[in-house]
Hints:
By secondary structure, this protein is of the alpha+beta class. It has 3 domains: 82 residues, no CATH class; 201 residues, GAF domain (Beta-Lactamase, 2-Layer Sandwich), CATH 3.30.450; 151 residues, Histidine kinase-like ATPase, C-terminal domain (Heat Shock Protein 90, 2-Layer Sandwich). A 6-stranded antiparallel β-sheet has the order 3-2-1-6-5-4, sandwiched between helices. It has a 5-stranded mixed β-sheet with strand order 8-10-11-15-14. Strands 7-9 form a two-stranded antiparallel sheet. A hairpin with a 2-residue loop joins strand 5 and strand 6. Helix 5 runs antiparallel to helix 12, helix 12 runs antiparallel to helix 13 and helix 14 packs across helix 16. It is rod-shaped.
Amino acid sequence: MDWECCWTKEAIALGDCPYIAEDEDELLVSRQRRVIERCCDCHLFKRDLSRFRDSNHPLAPVFSIVYGEHQRQRAQIQSLVSFLDSKTLEVRFLHELGSVLQSSVDLEEVLSVALTAITAGKGFGMNRAFLLMSDKDRDHLQGYLAIGPRNLEEASQTWNEIAYHDMDLQTLAQSFRLNKLSSERAKFHDILEQLSVPLSDTDNILIRSLTSKKPVLIEDAFHHPDVDPQFARLLGVDNFLLMPLISRNRRVGIIIADNCITHRRITEEDMRSMENFAFPVAFAIERASLYDRLQVELNRATEAGNKLKEQQELIVRMEKMALVGRITSSIAHSIRNPLMVIGGFARSMLKNTPDSDPKRDFIESIVGETRQLEGVLDEILNYSDSLFPARDFWDVNHLIESVVSDTGDALKAWNCTCRFSPSPGLPMVYIDFKQVAYCLRTIIQGDIDSAQDGGTIDISTSLTGNSVVIRIEDNNMLISQQELDTLLTPFASTQDLGNGFGLAMCRTMMERQGLPFSAVSLPAGGIMYTITLPTHKEDRS
């Protein structure tokens, strides 16, 4: 019998068999390999086998049986090889995924990796995935994040982009987190808002899957007896997978995966593969959530520690200030008594001394210096009182009118004008009346003393937010901001304004009450004083 196939030859030349390529020289000289690897699929061999079967040779039926079994086993082996290759890729994929999940404590990173793994072609290849998280505070299962296209055009663009860049899973997840996380959440906002189910609703398919801790593969969702029609319409697919996320018996959440674009049927094998993936994801999400809560508690503890430290430092400062106040008050009272005696005798002698007496100048000098020392003692005692302000609600317009009235004689004596523009209907302010009045008198008195040929002082009040603002403007003084800042330092002095203890005392008093006080030198000349007063007790700093 003449055979068409080359299986009968020990060696052949290149070109004798159309199934042998140029780089497969070994098949040309190895008859056994050539028959097993090439001849069994050759159409010439099949024709030879058919002719042999028709020849009524006794071995023909046996050979046909052997050949058929060989082909069956060969196909089975190829199927097993393909299965092992897919499982190898799956194991590598799960290993890569597990290494990322185990090393991350950032919740957004964990979720990005998990959802990217579900939808990436190098992962499970689903078109779309939704993540619902258990909210203990609301006792709800709530839509949290989603990933995937909403139409074919968007899907094609995304798949082409992934194919072009050829990124691994971790790079894909990082890219998603940095560039698309917020936009994906916004894109699926309408669906995520409606994916809210009470954990107590045991009839809901989502809660049943979560409670049973088993995945559920839904087919024919629009007619499924366990699926709410509204839920099926919301997803818009007939076939989807519910994968519960359970970590140490804690219901972390659930993943919904579907193929809304390709409409590829989700199989039992897909479900089993994702079931292995769900365990590390649930654990990673729980760990990241616990880490976030730990960070919150740590920040609270740190903040509480800082506040405690501030309170302790404040207590120490108050104790020191109280001691300073007691010492200052004691010294001031000790000096005041002999000073009053000196001043009284000096003033009595001055009354009985005629103008022509040469000693009168000395007595006048004693009286003037004594009066100045008495003013300093009053300020020192006021500083001692300022350590413990007594606050209550007062009418600020009435307070200013009282101060302006008290300084009226001094204003007339120095030919100065004080114009007060009150804002009507102001609320009561929470202040120490005595200290604020002292500050206003000190400012006005300082402006009077600095005016050479009269001057004008403008005072106004206004309501800003929850505070009442007092503004005092003196347009007759010419002083730099540096000199003004010097005056706000206790016992500092300048050539023009003399002792600066008064302004420093004003700032100290206001700061003790937590009241903002500023003094700004105006470019055109003059000073603008601003005092901000609270209208509520809680406004106090």
